[in-house]
Design goal:
The chain has 334 residues and is mostly helical. Among the domains are: 17-52 and 76-97, Arc Repressor Mutant, subunit A (Orthogonal Bundle); 102-147, Orthogonal Bundle (Arc Repressor Mutant, subunit A). Helices cover 57% and strands 0% of the residues. It is built from 17 helices and no strands. Helix 2 crosses helix 6 (84-95) and helix 10 packs across helix 17 (327-333). It is elongated, with a radius of gyration of 24 Å. The structure holds a DNA duplex (21 and 21 nucleotides). Residues 13-95, 96-146 form the Myb-like domain. Residues 217-232, 254-264 have a biased composition (Basic and acidic residues). Residues 266-276 have a biased composition (Polar residues).
Amino acid sequence: MEDVLMKKLGSEFMGVRKGAWTPEEDLLLKKCVEKHGEGRWHLVPTRAGVRSCSSFCVLLYVTCVVWANVRCVSASLQCLRRCRKSCRLRWLNYLKPNIKKGAFQEDEVDLIIRLHRLLGNRWSLIAGRIPGRTANDIKNFWNSCLGKKVSPNLQGVVDNKETAGSTAMEPLKQSSHTAGLKETVPTVAPSYSVIKPKPRIPSKSISFPILSKNIGTHREARREPSITHDGPDKEEDPLSWLRNLLGVEEEEDGKQKEVNEGRGQENLNSVPSNSQEGNVELLVAGCCREEEGSEEGQQWWEDMFLDEELMLGDLLGPEAGSNQSPNWVDGILE
DNA sequence: AACAACGGCAACCGCCTATAA
DNA sequence: ATTATAGGCGGTTGCCGTTGT
């Protein structure tokens, strides 16, 4: 009975609030998610709001809504009048505990540029590779800052592969040193090729070594179920499985020798398409892993950046993930 | 000091896909 | 097989603080 009423309240009687979130709303949402966990966002407004009140409050609320035309009632009655999407977005972009705020670090900027070159505007995928950063953050950062500065330079990279440097921002070294980034206003839309791997039919026996969550819940992974290889044995080291995965890909491209000999300086632009696709697979898997936000996920990150330095370095270039700040990056972050 | 322009950020919107009924 | 619903994503908008004139 009460559930039905809640549903009615949520869908019909409750006016859905918009605009900036108040601290009270944040608190309600946070408490709710901490109690019930993420997901089932359609239930969050009722869980965090009216449900916490007594039935009397519910009736009182309805009365108030009718008489007071929705406004200014929720605060006093502790009701969260937000739609599911708004709740999800607020949690993911702001309230989630491990979200990193503040300015982007040099290595993050470099990584974003590389990943954007690789993946295009698939911000959720990119965010999955940047610990603590949300897709919205990265998207905003790109649109307001990086995109304007990087695009024209990347144009030059595509046009002249000879100038393709060892880092994603190599082109910026030249321009920022000479003219300054703020002067490099883009006049031509970027035309660098972005990897959009075609879907493959995933094996039904596929299982990821480290994914407790079904990869199919990730939109990008669903759209591009690119991993067709059989999953690893459960006792097998997941990283060795990834190595094998990439190794097979490389061998198929006839690039295995190059990999073994250390192709660290090779720019992504010059990576063969099939190999790039393999890289995307790795990224997708990494994303899904990262989404869990668990300690295991954090450990995996460390594995990726430490143990698999060579592999990621091959993917992203020698300076990716490096703590050393290239001088030219300072220009970007000014 | 006042106003306009700009930039950064939070939030909304529409669409797509998966899944349950 | 069809429809409704929820989750998720990228694009876009609007607010607000900062900077320039």
